[in-house]
Amino acid sequence: MRVQKIPTLQQTYTGYAAKLILEDDSVFDGIGFGYPSEVAGEVVFNTGMVGYTETLTDPSYRGQILCMTYPLVGNYGVPSFNIKDEYGLPKFFESDKIQVKALLIHDLSDIASHWSCTRTLDQWLYEEKIPGIYGIDTRALTKKLRVHGVMMGAVVVSENAIDEARLKRALSSAKYEGLNFMPEVSTSEPKEYGDKSKDCIVVLDTGVKYSIIRNIIRTGYRVVRLPWDATYEQVMSYNPKGVVISNGPGDPKVCTDTIKTASKLIKESTPTLGICLGNQILALAGGANTYKLKFGHRGQNKPCVDRRNNQVYVTSQNHGYGIDPKTLGKTGFKVWFENADDDTVEGIEHKSKPIIAVQFHPEASPGPYDCMYVFDRFKEIIGNGVKPEPAVAAAATTKAAKARPKKKTTKIAAKKKKKKEVRRGAKR
Ligand SMILES: NC(=O)CC[C@H](N)C(=O)O
Q1: Which of 247, 345, 363 is the best mutation target for the ligand 1 pocket, counting ligand atoms within 8 Å of the beta carbon and taking the most?
Q2: What is the total count of domains within the chain?
Q3: How many angstroms separate the CA atoms of 179 and 255, rounded?
Q4: Are residues 187 and 164 located together in one domain of the fold?
């Protein structure tokens, strides 16, 4: 019997001169791969071990230079965009292109080998005109970012000798903070996904990942994806059962149009789910404040506590901003999830309206699928109409609670209980 050979491809677009310089003047020399060019952006690190095709295409990374802390990258190559899921969405990518400005890794695998591999990582970067550097000390870089906080950086990959002074000039004029990336990542026109006969969920696209659309369809809806600046009236013209405000890049405060629509969604008690940027937007719309984290949360094993039942879930995250819990007071929102590492807010829920939001990524991709239940809870909330389910109901879904035999509250048992109470009262 003949077995199909696993495709094995050699990296080819490598070996250029390459340099990264940071705001604090530190310089990292490495070997360039991908597309020879010069870029500047905010340098961030992600601690995930797998999923570079999903990570690199996550629109939330727009404007950022990404350092992956896992040391060996590229070994399984890049699959074809033509591999689709059952809903016709690309299976291994979160948008249609690479979103990071540059990629920084410790070691690029010499060969790529996987059944789905159709090109190498360096080839993909080359074709999408993205520079990459390998051979730098990513551990030293990450430690620097952890101590100092995220910094602006400039990357050059060049076929010729590197002009460091020029790179420094590029760095000095680079900006990330306060930029509005929405026009670059959002859809410019309405798009529809899923079975037309199903009820509709509108997604306000502030840089939505395909996996979010996939999970909304999975819970039994069709999706209408609207531009980030769609008004409340435009959203409602589709008669949606609920609205999802998606993930996305940059500071949530610059998304003023989406915040305006979110305020109206809150006012009208429209069932709404916010994810990552959407969580921050809902908080701002409710009157809370957001702030920039020192170096953010980017990884696939971030522990979060669901405050309704104190269970800890392993979550996938990619955010550089957070909600200030001290400002939630008069908003009507309370904390739903907390990060077990540093107690930052990882989700909020409205106390009286059908509105919930998470800072992490319930859709994962890449990362663990532990929090898929967030989508199912959203469906329950839509079904119930007004109020999110109480905490007790959530606790009853835990394994321990299920295993516990239920007490029978028969009439006799109730009478006995009453007698006991009367006796106790007499003793006092
Ligand atoms: N993944 C996201 O939606 C990120 C949200 C926001 N841009 C942040 O960095 O916090």
Answers
A1: 247
A2: 2
A3: 10
A4: no
Q: Are residues 150 and 63 located together in one domain of the fold?
A: yes
Whether 5 is covered by a domain: the verdict is no
> Does 286 carry a binding-site annotation?
no
CA 152: distance to chain centroid?
Answer: 21
Q: Confirm whether 413 is domain-assigned.
A: no
How far is residue 172's CA from residue 119's CA, in Å, rounded to a whole number? 35
Residues of the domain holding 292: 182-395
Which helix (H) or strand (E) is 155 found in, with range? Answer: strand 151-158
Q: Which of 172, 197, 216 is the last residue of a domain?
A: 172
pLDDT tens-digit readout, 370-394: 999 999 999 999 986 544 444 433 4
Identify whether residues 323 and 356 lie together within a single domain.
yes
Q: What H or E segment, with its residue span, contains residue 334?
A: strand 333-339
Only one residue has tokens 């991908």, namely 34
> Whole-number mean pLDDT of the chain?
91
Beta strands, E only, 176-332 = 191-193, 200-205, 222-227, 242-245, 272-275, 290-306, 311-323
Kindly tell me the burial class for residue 424, based on how many C-beta atoms sit within 10 Å of its own C-beta (0-12, 13-18, 19 or more). exposed
* Ligand 1 atom having least distance to the Cα of 278: 3
Q: Do 130 and 200 fall into the same domain?
A: no
The secondary structure element, H or E, covering residue 119 is strand 117-119
User: Do 230 and 133 fall within a single domain?
Assistant: no
Alpha carbon of residue 69 to chain centroid: 18
Task: Please give the positions annotated as active site.
Answer: 276, 361, 363
This prediction has a pTM of 0.89
Cβ burial of 44 (10 Å; 0-12, 13-18, 19+) is buried
The ipTM assigned to this model is 0.98
> Is 60 near ligand 1, meaning CB less than 6 Å away?
yes
